[in-house]
Amino acid sequence: MNDSNYDLAVGVGADSLNSGLKKAYQQHRDAFRGSVTKPIEDITYTFGWDFLAAPALTLAPPDEELWGKMIKAEGITALPDSGVLQFVAEQLKADCKVGDTPLPEVTGKISVALQLKLDGGGITAVPLGAWLENLPDSPMSVIVKNVVIPALLDQGATLLKGLKIPAQNLFGQTVTLSLVRVDVLPTHLVLASTARTGQAPAVRPDAVNWPTDKQVFTLISKNLLTTLLTAVVKQHENTALGHGDKTIQFVASAKWDATFRRATNLAVGSDPTTASAGVDIDWHAELDLVPMTPDGSGGCALTKAGHES
User: Fold this and answer.
1) Is residue 92 a contact partner of residue 52, using CB atoms and an 8 Å limit?
2) What phi and psi values does residue 153 have, to the nearest 5 degrees?
3) Could you say which of 167, 170, 201, 287 would form a disulfide bridge with 180 (CB–CB 3.0 to 4.6 Å)?
4) Which residues contact 25 (CB under 8 A, 6 or more apart)?
5) Burial of 186 (0-12, 13-18, 19+ CB in 10 A)
6) Which distant-in-sequence residues (6+ apart) come within 8 Å of 41 by Cβ?
7) Could you give the CA distance from residue 9 to residue 183 in angstroms, rounded to a whole number?
8) Phi first, then psi: what are they for 180, rounded to 5°?
């Protein structure tokens, strides 16, 4: 990652994100249904929901027409200029009751607009507004405005709550990463982090040429790669590389052994698939000539050699 100051970035395409949502829907069906009850002026209102098909994420803000139809979250009047996406469900079944009196069941499409913001190393999904197909005759009725919309906004925000790149065990080394950037692109959701502490996210980060031709990508900086490779090499310090002991009857015998001690000045090259380092290896070898006698007795050492760091 030579064109940014991040250490690790992960990008996931819309197709992959929604494939993951579909799998989560299949494996955790109960997480996509529920109900909420709220008393308002001595009347109890109940809203029950059930997503009849897996929801999806649209990595774009609602268009002007849809935004105009959305019932806005409290304090929201305009769309933010970055980080906005939509949580979309094609089939939401809504069951509402006023007191003990059920209202007609409604099934339709919904769209919830959210803004992703950084929050203490994770992501907060800020609800912006929601649109429901097949609303009751009075869209601003008490139950829609005060129960249904808040519940849908909360469902959308919960979906991405706490999204982050967790501490990673990379090459045997645990690396704690601080999330400092989130990009909502038309094709990808990108999270970028740093292994350095105290780096604040940019208020308006410069554009980065993310490799969006790939559905899923992971980028790593040369600095972090060097740190991780150094940790890998350190794990293998003082490791025996091998030994040998071979005798050719009546001719000679040879013994050798080698131990890796350490590597120094490890550096990743301009091509990040290559690296170089000074390598220290202890080795020892012996070669004994054996007189060609039938009983194999006798013998003399031709050479003994070795190296110790």
Assistant:
1) yes
2) -60, -40
3) 201
4) 32, 51, 53, 54, 55
5) exposed
6) none
7) 11
8) -125, 0
* Gap between the Cα atoms of 233 and 281, Å rounded: 13
Please provide the DSSP assignment of the chain as one string.
Answer: -TTSS-SEEEEEEHHHHHHHHHHHHHH-GGGGEEEEEEEETTEEEEEEEEESS--EEESSPPPHHHHHHSEEPTT--S--SSSEEEEEEEEEEEEEEETTEEPPPEEEEEEEEEEEEEETTEEEEEEEEEEETT--S-TT-HHIIIIIHHHHHHHHHHHTTT-----EEETTEEE--EEEEEEE-SSEEEEEEESSTTPPPPSSPPP----TTSSEEEEE-HHHHHHHHHHHHHHTTTEEEEEEEEEETTTEEEEEEEEEEEEEEEEE-SSTT-EEEEEEEEEEEEEEE----TT----EEEEEEEE--
Letter for the amino acid at 149? I
Instruction: State pLDDT tens for residues 246-267.
Output: 877 666 778 888 888 887 777 7
Rounded to whole angstroms, the Cα distance separating 48 from 36 reads 6
* CB neighbourhood size of 146 (10 A): 15
Distance, C-alpha 290 to centroid of its chain: 63
CA distances from 174 to 86, 99, 177, 222, 224 (A): 34, 54, 10, 17, 12
Contact 145, 73 (CB under 8 A): no
Token digits of residue 245? 């002991």
pTM above 0.85, yes or no: no
Per-residue pLDDT of 76-86, as tens digits, reads 989 998 899 99
Please give the Cα distance from 264 to 280 (Å, whole number). 8
Q: For residue 265, what are its two tokens?
A: 């000045």
Residue 78 burial class via C-beta count within 10 angstroms: exposed 0-12, middle 13-18, buried 19 and up: exposed
Q: Considering only CA atoms, which of 127, 121, 120 is closest in space to residue 83?
A: 127
Count Cβ atoms within 10 A of the Cβ of residue 86 and give its class: 0-12 exposed, 13-18 middle, 19 or more buried. buried
